[in-house]
Amino acid sequence: MIFRNLGLSIALIAFSSFAMAGKIAVFNHEQAIMQTKHAESIVKELQAKPEYSSLMAQIESLRADLQGLAKEQETKGMTWSGERQAEHRKKIEYVQADMQLAAKKIQAEQNTVAKRLMEDMAPKLESAIKKIVDSEDIDVLLKVPAVYYVKPDLDITKKVAVELDKAK
Question: What domains lie within the chain, and their CATH numbers?
Answer without folding.
Answer: 23-166 (3.30.910)
